[in-house]
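Incident review: delayed structure delivery

Summary: a single-chain prediction request sat in the queue longer than the usual turnaround. Root cause was a stuck worker, restarted by the on-call engineer. No data loss occurred. The affected request and its eventual output are reproduced below so the record is complete for anyone auditing the incident later.

Affected input:
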Amino acid sequence: MSDLTLHATARTQFGKGAARKIRRAAQIPAVMYGHGTDPVHITLPGHDTMLALKNPNALLTIVLDGAEQLALAKDVQRDPIKPVIDHVDLVVVRRGEKVTVDVPVHVEGEAALETVVQVEQQFLQLEVSATDIPEQVTVSVEGLAAGSQISAADITLPAGATLVTDGEHLVVNVTAQVTAEALEAELAEAEAEAGIEREESDEDAAAEAEGTEGDAEATAEGDTQE
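Output delivered after worker restart:
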C-alpha cells in the first residue's frame, strides 16, 4: 500500500468552539499519539484527508513543521448526516513494525447454480507490517456447491500476514436457494404455529367463487338431465 501524505498544522485551541471553527475552514481536527510520545493536536486538510481515509487502513505520512511521521487512523468520527469527518485519532507507527488491523473480505467467483453465497464475516483481523497492509482478503467461491463453508483458517492470506481472528469463525456460507413455493410454505407453517389466520386475498376469493359457480352449474346440469 502506498503512503499518502497529508500536510498538518499544529493547533493550540481546543474545545467544541475551536473544532467548529476548524471545520468551517474545511479542515479536520485530529490528535496523533503512540510509542510513548505525548499526544500532538493537529489540523488536517479536509478534502485530502477524506480521500486518504476512503481506505480505513491507509498508511499516512503526516508532515508537521517539516518533519514526517507515519500514522494509521485509529478512530474516525463522521457526521451522522453530512458527508464530513468531525475528528480523527491517529496512532504513530514505524517502518517494519507489526500492527493489528481489520481487513475487508472480498468474495469473487460464481458458486454453483441455485445457491446463495452469504458472507458471515465482513472483516478478518490480521497482524501485518505497518508498511504492507493489504487492502482486502480475497475469497473464491467459484463452483462451490450448497453446503460449502469457508472458515477463517481456510483462507489464503497475503504474504507476511498472520491471522488474529479465530480460525474456526465462519466467513462464507453457501446455501441452497429457497424457491418461492418453499418460502411460502415455510411462512404458512410459521403463521400456523403462531396461531395467525391469514386473510383471504382477492385472488383466492375470486378462485373460490369461480369454483363455487362451477359446482352450481354442474349440479343444475345434472338436475336437468334427470
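Verification: The helical segments are 16-24, 46-52, 180-193, 202-225.
Action items: add queue-age alerting; document worker restart procedure.
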